[in-house]
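Priority: medium. Attachment 1 of 2:
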Protein backbone atom coordinates (compact mmCIF):
# COMPACT_ATOMS: atom_id res chain seq x y z
CA UNK A 1 0.00 0.00 0.00
CA UNK A 2 1.31 3.44 -0.93
CA UNK A 3 0.73 6.55 1.13
CA UNK A 4 -0.87 8.33 -1.83
CA UNK A 5 -4.57 8.21 -2.63
CA UNK A 6 -3.66 8.26 -6.32
CA UNK A 7 -0.20 7.59 -7.73
CA UNK A 8 0.49 8.08 -11.44
CA UNK A 9 3.85 7.49 -13.13
CA UNK A 10 4.70 8.03 -16.80
CA UNK A 11 1.05 7.87 -17.84
CA UNK A 12 0.53 8.19 -21.59
CA UNK A 13 -2.48 7.94 -23.84
CA UNK A 14 -2.47 8.10 -27.63
CA UNK A 15 -5.82 7.67 -29.36
CA UNK A 16 -6.38 6.00 -32.72
CA UNK A 17 -5.37 8.49 -35.35
CA UNK A 18 -2.31 9.65 -33.42
CA UNK A 19 -3.82 12.21 -31.02
CA UNK A 20 -1.65 12.15 -27.88
CA UNK A 21 -3.81 13.16 -24.93
CA UNK A 22 -1.32 12.40 -22.11
CA UNK A 23 2.44 12.85 -22.37
CA UNK A 24 4.09 11.06 -19.47
CA UNK A 25 2.03 12.31 -16.51
CA UNK A 26 3.64 11.94 -13.06
CA UNK A 27 1.31 12.81 -10.20
CA UNK A 28 0.95 11.98 -6.51
CA UNK A 29 -2.30 12.93 -4.76
CA UNK A 30 -1.90 12.69 -0.97
CA UNK A 31 -4.44 10.79 1.11
CA UNK A 32 -6.90 13.07 2.88
CA UNK A 33 -6.24 16.04 0.60
CA UNK A 34 -8.64 18.31 -1.25
CA UNK A 35 -6.79 18.30 -4.57
CA UNK A 36 -7.50 20.55 -7.55
CA UNK A 37 -6.79 19.22 -11.05
CA UNK A 38 -7.01 22.19 -13.40
CA UNK A 39 -6.38 22.81 -17.07
CA UNK A 40 -7.93 24.25 -20.22
CA UNK A 41 -10.35 22.27 -22.38
CA UNK A 42 -8.54 19.40 -24.10
CA UNK A 43 -5.64 19.41 -21.63
CA UNK A 44 -6.10 15.72 -20.76
CA UNK A 45 -7.89 15.89 -17.39
CA UNK A 46 -10.92 13.80 -18.38
CA UNK A 47 -8.72 11.24 -20.15
CA UNK A 48 -6.73 10.81 -16.94
CA UNK A 49 -9.90 10.43 -14.86
CA UNK A 50 -11.39 7.93 -17.32
CA UNK A 51 -8.21 5.83 -17.15
CA UNK A 52 -8.46 5.75 -13.35
CA UNK A 53 -12.12 4.75 -13.64
CA UNK A 54 -11.30 1.92 -16.03
CA UNK A 55 -13.21 3.49 -18.92
CA UNK A 56 -10.17 4.24 -21.11
CA UNK A 57 -7.11 2.04 -21.66
CA UNK A 58 -3.77 3.75 -21.14
CA UNK A 59 -0.98 3.51 -23.71
CA UNK A 60 1.89 3.45 -21.22
CA UNK A 61 2.77 4.11 -17.59
CA UNK A 62 1.26 3.02 -14.28
CA UNK A 63 -1.60 4.20 -12.10
CA UNK A 64 -2.57 3.20 -8.56
CA UNK A 65 -5.73 4.03 -6.63
CA UNK A 66 -5.48 3.63 -2.86
CA UNK A 67 -2.44 1.39 -3.37
CA UNK A 68 -4.06 -0.86 -5.99
CA UNK A 69 -2.60 -0.99 -9.49
CA UNK A 70 -5.42 -0.45 -12.00
CA UNK A 71 -4.07 -3.30 -14.18
CA UNK A 72 -3.05 -5.85 -11.54
CA UNK A 73 -5.99 -5.22 -9.18
CA UNK A 74 -8.73 -3.54 -11.26
CA UNK A 75 -11.65 -4.55 -9.00
CA UNK A 76 -9.97 -3.19 -5.86
CA UNK A 77 -8.92 -0.02 -7.68
CA UNK A 78 -12.48 0.61 -8.95
CA UNK A 79 -13.91 -0.08 -5.50
CA UNK A 80 -11.60 2.58 -4.06
CA UNK A 81 -12.75 5.46 -6.25
CA UNK A 82 -16.03 7.20 -6.95
CA UNK A 83 -16.33 9.31 -10.10
CA UNK A 84 -18.79 12.14 -10.61
CA UNK A 85 -18.63 12.69 -14.40
CA UNK A 86 -19.28 15.88 -16.34
CA UNK A 87 -22.12 14.27 -18.28
CA UNK A 88 -25.51 13.64 -16.67
CA UNK A 89 -25.46 9.87 -17.18
CA UNK A 90 -28.21 7.66 -15.68
CA UNK A 91 -31.45 6.00 -16.75
CA UNK A 92 -34.11 8.71 -17.03
CA UNK A 93 -36.89 6.23 -16.18
CA UNK A 94 -35.33 5.07 -12.91
CA UNK A 95 -36.08 6.93 -9.71
CA UNK A 96 -33.15 8.27 -7.65
CA UNK A 97 -33.80 5.47 -5.14
CA UNK A 98 -33.65 2.82 -7.87
CA UNK A 99 -30.56 4.43 -9.41
CA UNK A 100 -28.62 4.21 -6.15
CA UNK A 101 -29.85 0.70 -5.38
CA UNK A 102 -28.76 -0.52 -8.81
CA UNK A 103 -25.35 1.13 -8.49
CA UNK A 104 -24.85 -0.40 -5.05
CA UNK A 105 -25.73 -3.81 -6.47
CA UNK A 106 -23.18 -3.39 -9.27
CA UNK A 107 -20.52 -2.79 -6.63
CA UNK A 108 -21.64 -5.80 -4.64
CA UNK A 109 -22.84 -3.83 -1.61
CA UNK A 110 -25.13 -6.11 0.47
CA UNK A 111 -28.66 -4.78 1.01
CA UNK A 112 -28.08 -4.53 4.75
CA UNK A 113 -25.13 -2.16 4.18
CA UNK A 114 -26.70 0.10 1.57
CA UNK A 115 -27.14 3.77 2.46
CA UNK A 116 -29.58 4.82 -0.23
CA UNK A 117 -31.87 7.09 1.79
CA UNK A 118 -28.96 8.39 3.87
CA UNK A 119 -27.21 9.53 0.69
CA UNK A 120 -30.37 11.03 -0.79
CA UNK A 121 -30.92 13.01 2.40
CA UNK A 122 -27.30 14.17 2.34
CA UNK A 123 -27.68 15.62 -1.16
CA UNK A 124 -31.15 17.06 -0.41
CA UNK A 125 -33.04 14.64 -2.65
CA UNK A 126 -34.97 12.58 -0.09
CA UNK A 127 -38.27 14.14 -1.22
CA UNK A 128 -37.47 13.12 -4.81
CA UNK A 129 -36.53 9.53 -3.99
CA UNK A 130 -39.41 7.95 -5.91
CA UNK A 131 -39.96 10.26 -8.89
CA UNK A 132 -38.54 9.62 -12.34
CA UNK A 133 -34.99 10.98 -12.61
CA UNK A 134 -35.90 12.67 -15.91
CA UNK A 135 -38.15 15.07 -13.97
CA UNK A 136 -35.26 16.39 -11.86
CA UNK A 137 -33.71 19.79 -12.52
CA UNK A 138 -30.13 20.03 -13.74
CA UNK A 139 -28.84 20.82 -10.26
CA UNK A 140 -30.71 17.88 -8.75
CA UNK A 141 -29.28 15.55 -11.37
CA UNK A 142 -25.78 16.76 -10.49
CA UNK A 143 -26.38 15.97 -6.82
CA UNK A 144 -27.78 12.55 -7.73
CA UNK A 145 -24.51 11.79 -9.54
CA UNK A 146 -22.59 12.67 -6.36
CA UNK A 147 -24.74 10.26 -4.34
CA UNK A 148 -24.31 7.60 -7.05
CA UNK A 149 -20.52 7.90 -6.80
CA UNK A 150 -20.67 7.31 -3.04
CA UNK A 151 -22.83 4.17 -2.83
CA UNK A 152 -19.81 1.90 -2.25
CA UNK A 153 -18.23 4.28 0.30
CA UNK A 154 -15.00 4.89 -1.67
CA UNK A 155 -12.03 6.55 0.06
CA UNK A 156 -11.38 8.68 -3.07
CA UNK A 157 -14.00 10.91 -4.71
CA UNK A 158 -13.33 12.56 -8.08
CA UNK A 159 -15.58 15.47 -9.03
CA UNK A 160 -15.29 16.33 -12.73
CA UNK A 161 -16.84 19.80 -13.24
CA UNK A 162 -19.49 19.11 -10.57
CA UNK A 163 -21.01 22.62 -10.45
CA UNK A 164 -21.40 23.24 -14.20
CA UNK A 165 -24.89 24.65 -14.68
CA UNK A 166 -25.71 24.58 -10.96
CA UNK A 167 -27.17 27.70 -9.33
CA UNK A 168 -25.46 29.42 -6.43
CA UNK A 169 -27.61 27.95 -3.63
CA UNK A 170 -27.25 24.38 -4.87
CA UNK A 171 -23.53 24.92 -5.41
CA UNK A 172 -23.15 26.00 -1.79
CA UNK A 173 -25.08 22.94 -0.61
CA UNK A 174 -22.87 20.68 -2.72
CA UNK A 175 -19.65 22.16 -1.35
CA UNK A 176 -20.97 21.97 2.19
CA UNK A 177 -21.51 18.23 1.73
CA UNK A 178 -18.13 17.74 0.03
CA UNK A 179 -16.41 19.54 2.91
CA UNK A 180 -18.21 17.19 5.32
CA UNK A 181 -16.94 14.17 3.36
CA UNK A 182 -13.43 15.59 3.30
CA UNK A 183 -13.57 16.28 7.02
CA UNK A 184 -14.47 12.62 7.57
CA UNK A 185 -11.35 11.52 5.70
CA UNK A 186 -12.40 11.23 2.05
CA UNK A 187 -9.76 12.31 -0.45
CA UNK A 188 -11.41 14.70 -2.90
CA UNK A 189 -10.10 15.43 -6.39
CA UNK A 190 -11.78 18.37 -8.11
CA UNK A 191 -11.66 19.54 -11.70
CA UNK A 192 -13.41 22.83 -12.37
CA UNK A 193 -13.38 25.86 -14.64
CA UNK A 194 -14.50 28.00 -11.69
CA UNK A 195 -11.00 28.83 -10.52
CA UNK A 196 -12.25 30.76 -7.49
CA UNK A 197 -13.77 27.47 -6.26
CA UNK A 198 -10.45 25.66 -6.56
CA UNK A 199 -8.63 28.50 -4.82
CA UNK A 200 -11.10 28.51 -1.92
CA UNK A 201 -11.46 24.73 -1.52
CA UNK A 202 -8.23 22.99 -2.51
CA UNK A 203 -5.13 22.72 -0.34
CA UNK A 204 -3.04 21.54 -3.30
CA UNK A 205 -3.40 22.10 -7.05
CA UNK A 206 -1.92 20.58 -10.20
CA UNK A 207 -2.28 22.32 -13.55
CA UNK A 208 -2.31 20.19 -16.70
CA UNK A 209 -1.72 21.65 -20.15
CA UNK A 210 -1.40 19.82 -23.48
CA UNK A 211 -1.20 16.43 -21.76
CA UNK A 212 1.55 17.35 -19.28
CA UNK A 213 1.69 18.61 -15.68
CA UNK A 214 3.04 22.17 -15.75
CA UNK A 215 2.59 22.92 -12.03
CA UNK A 216 1.89 20.93 -8.87
CA UNK A 217 2.17 22.53 -5.46
CA UNK A 218 0.37 23.83 -2.40
CA UNK A 219 -2.24 26.40 -3.39
CA UNK A 220 -0.51 29.07 -1.30
CA UNK A 221 2.83 28.39 -3.00
CA UNK A 222 1.30 28.55 -6.48
CA UNK A 223 -0.33 31.87 -5.69
CA UNK A 224 3.01 33.21 -4.46
CA UNK A 225 4.64 32.43 -7.83
CA UNK A 226 2.58 35.04 -9.64
CA UNK A 227 4.89 37.92 -10.43
CA UNK A 228 2.37 40.72 -10.89
CA UNK A 229 0.90 42.87 -8.17
CA UNK A 230 -1.43 45.83 -8.54
CA UNK A 231 -1.28 49.08 -6.58
CA UNK A 232 -4.36 51.34 -6.61
CA UNK A 233 -3.37 54.88 -5.67
CA UNK A 234 -5.66 57.87 -5.06
CA UNK A 235 -3.75 61.11 -5.67
CA UNK A 236 -4.37 64.66 -4.45
CA UNK A 237 -5.48 66.30 -7.69
CA UNK A 238 -7.43 65.65 -10.87
CA UNK A 239 -5.54 64.20 -13.84
CA UNK A 240 -6.37 64.02 -17.53
CA UNK A 241 -3.59 61.56 -18.40
CA UNK A 242 -0.91 59.41 -16.80
CA UNK A 243 2.06 61.64 -15.87
CA UNK A 244 5.30 60.96 -17.72
CA UNK A 245 7.94 58.88 -15.96
CA UNK A 246 5.62 56.48 -14.13
CA UNK A 247 5.62 52.68 -14.41
CA UNK A 248 4.94 51.44 -17.94
CA UNK A 249 1.73 49.66 -16.89
CA UNK A 250 0.07 52.61 -15.17
CA UNK A 251 -3.54 53.42 -16.01
CA UNK A 252 -5.78 56.32 -15.06
CA UNK A 253 -9.07 55.08 -13.59
CA UNK A 254 -11.18 58.15 -12.96
CA UNK A 255 -9.86 61.63 -12.31
CA UNK A 256 -7.66 60.79 -9.33
CA UNK A 257 -7.08 57.04 -9.30
CA UNK A 258 -3.95 55.46 -10.77
CA UNK A 259 -3.60 51.67 -11.04
CA UNK A 260 -0.02 50.47 -11.29
CA UNK A 261 0.72 46.86 -12.24
CA UNK A 262 4.30 45.85 -11.50
CA UNK A 263 6.49 42.78 -11.10
CA UNK A 264 6.83 42.27 -7.36
CA UNK A 265 9.96 40.18 -7.92
CA UNK A 266 11.75 43.23 -9.34
CA UNK A 267 10.18 46.16 -7.47
CA UNK A 268 8.26 46.85 -4.30
CA UNK A 269 5.35 49.12 -3.40
CA UNK A 270 7.64 51.70 -1.80
CA UNK A 271 9.54 52.18 -5.06
CA UNK A 272 6.28 52.55 -6.98
CA UNK A 273 4.99 55.16 -4.54
CA UNK A 274 8.32 56.99 -4.65
CA UNK A 275 7.93 57.25 -8.43
CA UNK A 276 4.47 58.76 -8.01
CA UNK A 277 5.80 61.28 -5.49
CA UNK A 278 8.67 62.17 -7.85
CA UNK A 279 6.04 63.05 -10.46
CA UNK A 280 4.79 65.73 -8.08
CA UNK A 281 1.70 63.92 -6.90
CA UNK A 282 0.54 63.55 -3.30
CA UNK A 283 -0.83 60.19 -2.19
CA UNK A 284 -4.24 60.23 -0.45
CA UNK A 285 -5.00 56.51 -0.30
CA UNK A 286 -3.41 53.20 -1.33
CA UNK A 287 -4.85 49.73 -1.88
CA UNK A 288 -3.25 46.57 -3.24
CA UNK A 289 -4.47 43.56 -5.22
CA UNK A 290 -2.55 40.29 -5.19
CA UNK A 291 -2.65 37.90 -8.12
CA UNK A 292 -5.28 35.16 -7.87
CA UNK A 293 -5.38 31.62 -9.18
CA UNK A 294 -6.73 32.79 -12.53
CA UNK A 295 -3.59 34.89 -13.06
CA UNK A 296 -1.35 31.93 -12.21
CA UNK A 297 -3.39 29.60 -14.43
CA UNK A 298 -3.21 31.91 -17.45
CA UNK A 299 0.50 32.56 -16.95
CA UNK A 300 1.35 28.85 -16.79
CA UNK A 301 -0.91 27.63 -19.59
CA UNK A 302 0.21 30.40 -21.94
CA UNK A 303 3.90 29.94 -21.25
CA UNK A 304 3.68 26.16 -21.76
CA UNK A 305 1.19 26.25 -24.62
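Attachment 2 of 2:
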Amino acid sequence: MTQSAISICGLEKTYAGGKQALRGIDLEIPRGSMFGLLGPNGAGKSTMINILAGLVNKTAGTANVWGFDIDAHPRNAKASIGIVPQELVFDAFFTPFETLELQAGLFGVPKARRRTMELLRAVHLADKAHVYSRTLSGGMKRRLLVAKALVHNPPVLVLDEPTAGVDIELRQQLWEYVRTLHGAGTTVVLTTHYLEEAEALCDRIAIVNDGAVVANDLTSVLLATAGDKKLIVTVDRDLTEVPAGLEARTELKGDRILTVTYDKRARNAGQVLAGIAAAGLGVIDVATEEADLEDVFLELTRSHG
